[in-house]
Every structure is written in C-alpha cells, then in structure tokens.
Write a sequence for this structure.
C-alpha cells in the first residue's frame, strides 16, 4: 500500500492538467480512504479528473458521472440521483 500512496503523491507533485484515477482508493481501509479521498478531492480543483471507481465515496464530488457497462456508456447521472437510487435499492433489498 505504501507504493500506492507514493504513486499518488508523485502524480500530484507534478501538478498535471488532468488526473486519471483508476480505483485510486479501492485497496484502502475506510479511515485511510477518507484521508486520501480528501486529498484527491482538493487535487481535483482547477483540473480535469477522470475517475474510475466502484465506490460511491470515490465519486461523490464529481461533476458528471458516466455509468459504463460492457465498454459502453449507458447513462450520465448526477451524484444526487445515484445516491437516491442506491437508497431506494437498499430499501427494496431490505438493507436499510
């Protein structure tokens, strides 16, 4: 995990115009994820950021979210709609 964090730090030090984050926080525990995610959220300001993620926490501050299935974009949704749908699904499945 240390190498992973160093890679993120090295990318941010270079101050790129665009960040590509592919499951950037997937290997982290919840506590570490919050710290790294806060840093990434700050780093997103004033630059384009393409984030590939399964966790909603990784994309909750994104401007646009594209839902991709089998290599094709199926939907473009807001975080608000995605969270609403997740909550509805949790209620239907009895998780809430």
């Amino acid at each position: 995990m240390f190498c992973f964090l160093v890679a993120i730090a090295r990318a941010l030090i270079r101050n790129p115009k665009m960040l590509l984050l592919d499951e950037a926080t997937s290997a982290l525990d919840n506590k570490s994820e919050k710290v790294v995610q806060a840093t990434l959220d700050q780093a997103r300001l004033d630059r384009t950021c393409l984030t590939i993620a399964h966790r909603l926490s990784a994309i909750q501050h994104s401007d646009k979210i594209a839902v991709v299935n089998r290599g094709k974009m199926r939907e473009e949704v807001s975080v608000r709609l995605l969270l609403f749908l997740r909550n509805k699904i949790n209620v239907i499945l009895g998780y809430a």
In short: The chain is about 45% helix and 20% strand.
